[in-house]
Structure formats: structure tokens, C-alpha cells
Specification:
Helix content: 40-55%
CATH topology of the largest domain: Rossmann fold
CATH superfamily of the largest domain: Alpha/Beta hydrolase fold, catalytic domain
Radius of gyration: 24 Å
Strand content: 5-15%
Mean pLDDT: 84
Low-confidence stretches: 438-477
Number of domains: 2
Largest sheet: 9 strands, mixed
Shape: globular
Number of helices: 15
Structural class: alpha/beta
Distance between the termini: 70 Å
Strand order of the largest sheet: 1-2-4-3-5-6-7-8-12
């Protein structure tokens, strides 16, 4: 055997091994994506969730990649020479069936989202139809999983601290943490300073210790197209004091936005806070704890009320006494996030966890809520979202909408896919319904007699609802 022949043999063996490995991993992750299986190890769940989420949202892209790989192996003769490759070729047929099933599940989200939109359309008398297989927008979103806001001006890394807060943060956590106390503003090019457009105040997730304001979801792109001013914030991820430093930072950013956003065309009296995962928890806490001095040290007199909240795969119950999360979430939060001493089961720590679980602060709610959650989320259990919505319905007069997404994993909405865009369009219409394009807030609420009263732009209305104002599509209560 010549040196060239040896090199070719080694190269073909490498390709064969790579194909076998990729095929096996894809087969396993396809099974996880379909079943939503969870383990008792949070780290394993995170890895499985991140990887299976991509397969669930981009199944046709995975199939296309596999077809290209298989074609290459045919061209190079590896398929004909390798028994290993031929074996995994047949296992890939099973995987392909699973991926097609995942694609079908993503299309089911269209029906769920359309029912959600139909209810809003009845009230707005503006019918919205989600893009289907015949729509160019559907294929544009399917074939291009990457997105970036267009037709807007971005103002990056604007600090929101005061001088005393900067010095305090630098002393306790170092300069890198101070850099995290910044925000980005996305101003549509059609919006000018003083236009008073609604503001979407977005808080990224990442388990309170990771993530970045630069990781934009399709929701931000969509709201810019609706001429909303979008603010995406960072907060300190490495802090010695632990949580609720992150929540306090978010309120500091909100303080800055209320003072300065009119310069960028935003309306400080129409700020809707949104967030995903841990960011969803802080978004809900901001909505449920307006003007509470404990979470506003040094700016106790500042008004931190917001006009609405949108939670995406949000953490709504940190206590989790029912252990829906299947791992020791309480211990992790107390030890690693809040950095508190003592047992997570102690009365003091359970009280702390309860105080920071939106599920147990619902009675303080006074603004519209929308909760979006995937039905096979293995990191933030869907049952927590269901409990939150049910309790909100019982305890509050403010409207709440719930969109449970079939086949949705944790933070599925971060990836640009048909499912995420169906949810994004539905969420955008919900935002416009309550804070419409004319700049008038929908202040309707549910009366005790089941009728809906309030005003839109000053005109009084009172009518019977076609369905209850809570929208629970995809969830059999």
C-alpha cells in the first residue's frame, strides 16, 4: 500500500466514523425532541434541551444536511466500501421519519396560533392569517434560520447606572460587572424622537448567570417592523451578592428608560416588559412589584410601573414544592444564584423563594399578561405556567392570555423557525391589541358578570365576550 493509498484509507475511515457518530447522535436527539424526556440532572437536561431544540425547530435543515453528507460519501466511494456507513444509512431512514414528524408538529403550532389570533381579530376587527406552506414568508423563515433587525438604528451599550451605582458595583464585583449594566436600543427608521411609540423592554434569559442582550429573538425583529421601540438590556451576571441583584439592575434599566426613551421616539407611559426563561421571571417580578422600595435601593421614589408583561418560557415558580422540574432547583437557586446560607428547605429560604416566585405574587397584578410556553419544556415545567394562568384568572381582573405551544421545548422561540414565527406573530398582535398602533392603550378588563368593559381610545364599550378573555389554546383545562 502506497502512502497515498494509506492517506485515502484513513480519510475514508474518518468520514465513515464521522457519519456514524453524527447519525447516532441525531437519532438519539430526535427521540429526545419528540418525547421531551428529562433527567434528574439539570446540566444533562440543558445540553439535551439545547441540542434537541435545534432538531425540533429545524428538522428539514437537518435532513438536508444529512442528504448532503450522504451524497458526499457516495461521490467519494465511502458508502460502497464501509459497512458502518451502510448500516447507519438505514438507521437514518428511521431518523428521517422522526424529523418529518417534528416538522408536522411545528405546523400544528400554526393552528394553535391561528385560534389565538382569531379571538384577537374578533375584538380588533382586523383579521390576521398566519403564513402557510404557500406563503413566501414561511419558506423565507424556514430556509433562513438567522435573523437580524432591519430598517432600524441601533444604539449600543448605553450605561444605565448612576455614578454612585457605578462605583459601588465596581468595588463589589469589578469593572466587568459594571460593563454588564448597559442596554441597546433599536429604533425603527420611521420613528423619530418625540413620536411616543410603545416600548418593548426585553430581558434575556440564561439562568440568571449567563446570556446576553445581543442574543435577539424573532420577537424583537417583529416588533421593530411594527414600529415599536425595543430596548434589550444586560444585567450583572457575576455578582458576589447574588440574586436579587439582577432584578434590581433590571429596575435600574427601567428607570433609565423612563427618563430617556422619549429621545428615541418611545413613550415612557407605554412600556411592556418581556423576557425569556430567567428573564421572564424578572419581567414578571417587575410587573408584580412596582414601586416596592426593597427592590429599588437608592431610587425608592422612582415610578417603576409598566403597562404589560410578556413571558416566554418564563420561570414562574422557583419554590417548586411539587418538584415538577425533576431536579433540585431550590438548592441551586439558593446556593448558586442567590448565594444564601442555610438549607433551601429552611423557613427563611422558603420565604425568600416564595417572594421571588411570580406564581405567589399574582394578587398584586394589575396589568395585562401573556404567557407563552412549550408543552415539552424540560427546564421550566409547563405545569408552572398552567398554575400561574389559572391563579391569575381567579385572583385578578386584569386580562391574561396563554399560548401553550405543541412540541415546544425550552426557549424554542429564540430560533428563527416556523413554530417560533407563528408564536412571534401571535405575540406581536397581542401587544398591538393592548397597545395598538394608534398609540391608545386597550384598558379593557373582565367584569364580575362576565362582560367586558373599559375603553379604547376613550370610547366606552360594554359587551359580552365570545369566549373568556383568557385564551388557553392548546391546553385542555
Amino acid at each position: 500500500m502506497t502512502l497515498f493509498d494509506l492517506g485515502m484509507y484513513m480519510a475514508k475511515s474518518m468520514w465513515a466514523f464521522s457519519y456514524a457518530t453524527a447519525s447516532f447522535v441525531t437519532l438519539v436527539l430526535t427521540g429526545v425532541a419528540i418525547s421531551g424526556a428529562a433527567t434528574r440532572n439539570r446540566s444533562v437536561n440543558i445540553v439535551l434541551c439545547l441540542l434537541s431544540n435545534h432538531l425540533s425547530e429545524l428538522p428539514l435543515t437537518i435532513m438536508f444536511t444529512d442528504a448532503c453528507f450522504y451524497t458526499w460519501l457516495n461521490v467519494t466511494g465511502v458508502f460502497q466500501e464501509s459497512l458502518l456507513v451502510r448500516f447507519f444509512y438505514y438507521t437514518n431512514i428511521i431518523t428521517a421519519i422522526g424529523l418529518l414528524y417534528l416538522f408536522k408538529r411545528s405546523l400544528e403550532s400554526r393552528e394553535v396560533g391561528q385560534k389565538f389570533l382569531d379571538q384577537i381579530s374578533k375584538d380588533r376587527k382586523k383579521w390576521i392569517e398566519l403564513p402557510g406552506l404557500s406563503s413566501p414568508r414561511f419558506w423565507q423563515q424556514l430556509l433562513n434560520p438567522f435573523h437580524w433587525p432591519r430598517d432600524c438604528t441601533v444604539y449600543q451599550n448605553i450605561p444605565y447606572w448612576t455614578q454612585s451605582e457605578q462605583l459601588s458595583a465596581q468595588k463589589s464585583d469589578g469593572w466587568e460587572s459594571v460593563v454588564d449594566m448597559a442596554l441597546d436600543i433599536y429604533r425603527p427608521n420611521t420613528v423619530q424622537g418625540g413620536d411616543d411609540r410603545p416600548v418593548l423592554f426585553y430581558i434575556h434569559g440564561g439562568g440568571w448567570t449567563q446570556g446576553s442582550k445581543k442574543l435577539l429573538s424573532p420577537l424583537i425583529t417583529e416588533m421593530i417592523s411594527h414600529e415599536w421601540v425595543v430596548v434589550s438590556i444586560d444585567y450583572r451576571l457575576r455578582t458576589k451578592a447574588g440574586y436579587p441583584t439582577q432584578l434590581v439592575d433590571c429596575k435600574r434599566a427601567l428607570r433609565w428608560v423612563k427618563d430617556e426613551i422619549r429621545t428615541f421616539g418611545g413613550d415612557p407611559s407605554r412600556i411592556i416588559v418581556a423576557g425569556d426563561s430567567a428573564g421572564g421571571q424578572m419581567a414578571a417580578m417587575i410587573s408584580l412589584t412596582p414601586n416596592i422600595a426593597e427592590y429599588q435601593p437608592g431610587f425608592e421614589v422612582v415610578d417603576t410601573t409598566v403597562q404589560g408583561c410578556l413571558g416566554l418560557s418564563a420561570v414562574l415558580n422557583i419554590v417548586d414544592l411539587e418538584n415538577y422540574s425533576h431536579h433540585d432547583a431550590r438548592a441551586r437557586f439558593i446556593k448558586d444564584i442567590a448565594k444564601r446560607d442555610g438549607s433551601p428547605e429552611s423557613a427563611e429560604n422558603l420565604k425568600f423563594l416564595t417572594e421571588h416566585s411570580p406564581r405567589f405574587r399574582i394578587k398584586e397584578a394589575g396589568v395585562p399578561f401573556m404567557i407563552v410556553h412549550g408543552d415539552i419544556d424540560t427546564l421550566t415545567p409547563v405545569q408552572h405556567a398552567r398554575d400561574f394562568v389559572r391563579e391569575y384568572q381567579i385572583s385578578c381582573t386584569a386580562p391574561i392570555s396563554y399560548l401553550e405551544v405543541p412540541g415546544g421545548h425550552h426557549c424554542f422561540h429564540v430560533i428563527s423557525s416556523p413554530r417560533s414565527w407563528y408564536v412571534t406573530i401571535a405575540a406581536a398582535e397581542w401587544l398591538n391589541y393592548h397597545f395598538d398602533a394608534s398609540g391608545r392603550q386597550n384598558t379593557q378588563s373582565i367584569d364580575n358578570d362576565g362582560s367586558q368593559s373599559g375603553s379604547i381610545g376613550g370610547s366606552a364599550t360594554k359587551r359580552k365576550l365570545h369566549v373568556h378573555d383568557i385564551v388557553e389554546w392548546g391546553w385542555n383545562t
